[in-house]
Write a structure and sequence with these properties.
- By secondary structure, the protein is α+β, with helices and mostly antiparallel strands.
- The protein has two domains: 10-44; 49-235, Alpha-Beta Plaits, CATH 3.30.70.
- 49% of the residues lie in helices and 18% in strands.
- The strands form two sheets. It has a four-stranded antiparallel beta sheet, sandwiched between helices.
- Helix 4 runs parallel beside helix 6 (198-209).
């Protein structure tokens, strides 16, 4: 009579090995899935720029902006000043490749064509980038003296607004959700109504309050013009 021999130890060993391989496959599949999802997320750039870092514009989050008596510089990069409108339009169209240019008309002087308004640090970066493309913009410097709570708030809010506009210069950005900017502006505490430039501060806050939920590239020029005029007012007194 023939007997069939079963190797129980071997069978158990094979079962354990199979289970270990199966678990290993599951873990590997999970890791690969995580890596792929991260790659897709990074490459899938959204059309909407929806965040801005305003933490550096306020010393204590939602508390009053710090008054340090220092001077903050905002720099407008100018492509040229033209008496003939067609020449201004031509320069604006050329600069459109590098951002969201805007124009300022000045009586008896002509039309200024500007690429944008920037913080001093950001302006330096832009000038270098443009220089690499053989474009040499001139600079208009606005010096805001933070010698009062009112002026400190004005410079902080302008700084936050310019972060939005700078983000919109990215070619992949189509619009910016303004909720964070509006909340930041609203959380600034009231200042003394007798302060110099109090009316300009209120004008600035009201303008931001009435911005649409999303600021598009097409509206960037209008925003720049407003900031330009505010800066002219507060630095010419």
């Amino acid at each position: 009579m023939k007997y069939t021999r079963y190797d129980l130890k071997r069978k158990n060993s094979d079962g354990i090995r199979f289970a270990a391989v199966f678990v290993g496959i599951l873990i590997l599949a999970f890791l690969i899935g995580s890596i792929v999802s991260r790659i897709v997320y990074r490459n899938d750039k959204p059309d909407t720029v929806n965040s801005v870092d305003t933490s550096k514009t306020n010393d204590k989050g939602n508390d009053k902006t710090a008054v340090n008596g220092g001077t903050v510089k905002f720099i407008a990069l100018q492509g040229g000043m033209y008496k003939i409108k067609e020449n201004a339009d031509e320069t604006k169209n050329k600069l459109a490749e590098y951002g969201n240019p805007f124009m300022i008309s000045e009586q008896d002087k002509g039309t200024r064509v500007l690429l944008g308004i920037f913080t001093e640090e950001e302006a330096g970066k832009r000038v270098k980038e443009l220089g690499d493309k053989n474009i040499s913009p001139s600079k208009m410097t606005f010096e805001v003296n933070n010698n009062s709570e009112c002026m400190a708030e004005i410079s902080a809010i302008i700084d936050a607004n310019l972060k939005v506009l700078t983000a919109l210069m990215d070619k992949t950005a189509q619009s910016y959700k303004t909720e964070a900017l509006k909340n930041y502006c609203e959380n600034q505490k009231s200042v003394d109504k007798s302060s110099a430039n109090y009316s300009e501060l209120n004008e600035l806050k009201e303008y931001i309050k009435n911005l649409p939920p999303e600021l598009t590239k097409e509206k960037a020029a209008e925003n720049y013009v407003f900031i330009y005029n505010i800066l002219k007012k507060v630095t010419n007194k």
